[in-house]
Design brief:
By secondary structure, the chain is of the alpha+beta class. It is built from five helices and 15 strands. It has a single domain, classed as q2cbj1_9rhob like domain (Jelly Rolls, Sandwich). The protein is about 25% helix and about 35% strand.
Amino acid sequence: MSTILQRLQQVDWQKKSKDLHLNGHVIIPGVLTKEECGDLVHGYDNDTLYRKTINMERYRFGSGEYKYFQYPLPGLITTIREAVYPRLAPVANQWMDEVGVETRFLSSHEELKQRCTEKGQTKPTVLILKYGQGGFNTLHQDLYGEVYFPMQLVLFLNQPGKDYTGGEFVLTEQIPRAQSKAIVLQPQQGDMLLFTTSWRPVKGSRGWYRVNMKHGVSPVNSGSRHTLGIIFHDAES
């Protein structure tokens, strides 16, 4: 069986980066095995892995629950975070160039963590989310502080149509001077979805401009849905 690092190395990153730049999101199929997904789901009840639990209804974020991992992160998650980030940094820098932002990202994820630490952002933002019947997540952005990386990823740990129904992943584009556009996705178990944290550049008749984007989850009709969210920047608390 191939390792997670081998699977990530086999991805056509040139094509995926192009699609990510064009659309603000891209799916990479089959990143996790069924067994790896199962291990992450079963680990949901191991409280020693987590630093904080959030009841989504309490904060009006939706209906469901999620838990933030604590450092040190599990090896599988650390490998994904450190292997995927260098593939995204060039796209992030291209986005900064296109909209005239001076911020630049080096290829090492450790450098981003150091930048976060300097701003008081020291808490990991990797999280695992659990939704039961009726669960959903309102549209939002995962920024967490002054320092943030413009892309993040989510891994889908259950099989739609078998383990749950409904629960589609939703992206919205807030197009200037126009109605918002909704993008509805239903990745399969083990798939990785890369998407923008808050905006993506779009080229118009007068040059590049930002399109604001948010993400959420539609209501789960039946079953149980788990996802692993990997955000590259850390949080203040």
